């Protein structure tokens, strides 16, 4: 039987790919922009502003999509504002039933008003700590870690990688690169990835969202990525024959054999055109083929989504049951950049009992 939306909401969920600057509450953007005198395209109400973000992200224009981040990043340029956004992020995720999350952002985008990179990371951590305390007090315990992102078109990746290592025991679990794939191959940042490997650290790379197999191949075989951000284009290396048999190319085989986690973000992929619809999203076939598939939100504000919405949409499109949602969730927890014993404690102590209670009910 397909789970109800309420069951999906109450089920424990794990989120590995969520952008801090893509998940602000519209009401918070309104308040923070008034405080600093930032001009928004719409400022009549939080609802109207939320509509503007969703419409811009849905427009099919990359320029309009990217413009949305100009406004969220603009209101996140001082410590208290960043800490507030980080705290609200944790509270929103916990209220949605997320029990473990890795939330990413690019520190280099928050230094326009004079903050140092270190102060940006500290402000985010302050907000996360406050959010975790508030969620715990509300009876919704959650564990949250930061991922530090470097922008692939910029040249600060080594600096950001060093920042991730400096904060590794204070809330930062890993590193990521993001931004336009075309023209900016991940190999531009090879020194940062090699440094992180020598430090026994972890990183994920946005790859194979729009650009295709070469980007995925570079991320894994040249850069040594632990996980793939999106990775939807791995489907281009898989052939489904007329008789239903499936053939995997060398790269797709490697990704499946090595259990390389795919951080799939269905709603976001439909908005950017990486998939035509949820029902046609490669996540269906990749799940059938038992790739290490995880479900994620990417940008909750722009995609008007949540972990509950993402999973409910998959239930509707593919008929998944609670056992499938538990599989995605355990896949994600296994793939987290958290020490093994801490991952196991959440799987055995929170995820399995949470789903068992729902399945038995
Ligand atoms: Zn992303």
Description:
It is a single chain. By secondary structure, the protein is an alpha/beta fold. The protein has two domains: 5-20 and 87-360, Metal-dependent hydrolases (TIM Barrel); 25-75, no CATH class. The chain is 49% helix and 14% strand. It is built from 15 helices and ten strands. It has helices spanning 5-10, 26-36, 46-58, 62-74, 79-95, 117-137, 157-166, 190-198, 213-222, 250-257, 266-272, 283-288, 307-318, 322-334, 340-360; strands at 13-19, 98-105, 143-151, 172-178, 203-207, 227-230, 238-240, 246-248, 262-264, 293-295. The strands form two sheets. The protein has an eight-stranded parallel beta sheet with strand order 1-2-3-4-5-6-9-10, with helices on both faces. Strands 7-8 form a two-stranded antiparallel sheet. Helix 6 (117-137) links the parallel strand 2 (98-105) and strand 3 (143-151). Helix 3 (46-58) runs antiparallel to helix 4 (62-74), helix 7 runs parallel beside helix 8 (190-198) and helix 14 (322-334) packs antiparallel against helix 15 (340-360). The longest helix has 21 residues, at 117-137. The protein is globular. The structure holds zinc ion (ZN). Zinc ion (ZN) binds next to strand 1.
């Amino acid at each position: 039987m397909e789970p109800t939306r309420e069951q999906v909401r109450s089920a424990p969920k794990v989120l590995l790919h969520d952008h801090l600057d893509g998940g602000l509450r519209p009401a918070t953007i309104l308040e923070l922009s008034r405080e600093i005198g930032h001009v928004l395209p719409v400022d009549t109400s939080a609802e109207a502003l939320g509509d503007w973000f969703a419409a811009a992200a849905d427009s099919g224009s990359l320029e309009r999509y990217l413009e949305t981040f100009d406004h969220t990043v603009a209101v996140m340029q001082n410590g208290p504002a960043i800490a507030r956004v980080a705290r609200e992020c944790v509270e929103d995720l916990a209220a949605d039933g997320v029990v473990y999350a890795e939330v990413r952002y690019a520190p280099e985008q928050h230094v326009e008003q004079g903050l140092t990179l270190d102060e940006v990371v500290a402000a985010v951590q302050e907000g996360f700590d406050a959010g975790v305390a508030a969620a715990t007090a509300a009876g919704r315990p959650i564990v949250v870690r930061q991922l530090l992102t470097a922008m692939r078109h910029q040249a600060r990746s080594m600096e950001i990688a060093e920042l991730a290592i400096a904060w590794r025991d204070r809330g930062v679990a890993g590193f990521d690169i993001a931004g336009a794939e075309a023209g900016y191959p991940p190999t531009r940042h090879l020194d940062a990835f090699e440094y992180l490997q020598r430090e026994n650290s972890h990183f994920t790379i946005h790859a194979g969202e729009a650009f295709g197999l070469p980007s995925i191949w570079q991320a894994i075989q040249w850069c040594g990525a632990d996980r793939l951000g999106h990775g939807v284009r791995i489907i281009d290396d898989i052939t489904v024959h007329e008789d239903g048999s499936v053939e995997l190319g060398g790269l797709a085989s490697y990704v499946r054999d090595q259990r390389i986690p795919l951080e799939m973000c269905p709603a976001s992929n439909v908005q950017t055109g990486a998939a035509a619809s949820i029902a046609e999203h490669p996540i269906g076939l990749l799940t059938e083929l038992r790739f290490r598939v995880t479900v994620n939100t990417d940008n909750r504000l722009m995609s008007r989504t949540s972990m509950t919405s993402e999973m409910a949409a998959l239930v509707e499109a593919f008929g998944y049951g609670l056992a499938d949602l538990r599989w995605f969730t355990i896949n994600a927890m296994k793939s987290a950049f958290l020490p093994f014993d801490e991952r196991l404690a959440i799987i055995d102590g929170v995820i399995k009992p949470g789903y068992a209670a729902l399945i038995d009910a």
